[in-house]
């Protein structure tokens, strides 16, 4: 057995890549490091056809199933206007016994950076209420890791969700999830594992994360930002509230609906879309124009100053992957749709407006809930937006008959893929 062959038990005879993903044809180069996270690093890259792209280099030697699951969800949701476009991915075999297996995931590059960076780069670290509302529209699917580092902004102020490593299918019998996953400061109380009590929760855990992100946008940091253990504070204290009394009653009411500790009392994405905080939103074009102007001011300010090291949000320590294997980009990638836990990735940028953001996230979350069968809805925080038709397809859908089964124990760097004409090559 080759040294890179997996050693742990598997249900199948050998781990196979069951769905084909074709990365962009041609030369891909890696440039500056954009961010570091628990499963990989993200680089700014350039492709001679796609232009500027983001390249996530994931270490599948550490957690291959979660990485492959993320690629599956990216492919299914890539057609949605509020999901970063997925251009392709390819497997890179280890070069020696000391190196790791990598998966190079090529995504749309969001020039505006992340919401996390926007918050930290805005004077006073408090964003306009109309900006907050806009972002809420994007929380329309159950993502399990909704937080400011995973919400990106384009140069024009459009909202894009990234990092689908924690996406999960709900139990077909009762619509619940039983895996305690997420980032501590944004996790809902019911998703936190308690001693002697099983975890069971549904899509409303993302609504809680949305509310925490809203407080972060308003006040510059999450509740309990510098206090530990966070899980005990979330479980034992009342729901977080805004410290300042200057915010509108609509915003305060919206947060209260998001941050009900009892899931049955917490509003759904559909209900939140009818809240006055959302319905009284100014035109999107107006808000995006303001946001675009703000991003340009920040960018001009940053270009006049020397680069300053960015501080990552709470999370695991990053790892340093080997260099990109550029030759692999000429081949398509097939990946399975396994079901296992997945760590999250922090992406560091610096982008600003709560109102519009809420609206887009909520719509995405709502549509993924409506389009697919309730027993098989995607566990993503996009529960409120209209997802592409592919969202309603179960992960167990039959595969194309010509799909290539890839056995890692018998493959070499340049011979494992077969071209199936994937739509990702558009």
From TrEMBL:
What Pfam families does the entry give? Pkinase
Where does this protein hold ATP? 56
Q: Which Gene3D superfamilies match?
A: Phosphorylase Kinase, domain 1, Transferase(Phosphotransferase) domain 1
Q: Name one GO biological process term.
A: regulation of MAPK cascade
Q: Entry's SUPFAM superfamilies?
A: Protein kinase-like (PK-like)
Check the record and name the PROSITE patterns matching this protein: PROTEIN_KINASE_ATP (PS00107), PROTEIN_KINASE_DOM (PS50011)
Instruction: Indicate what this protein is called per its UniProt record.
Output: Protein kinase domain-containing protein
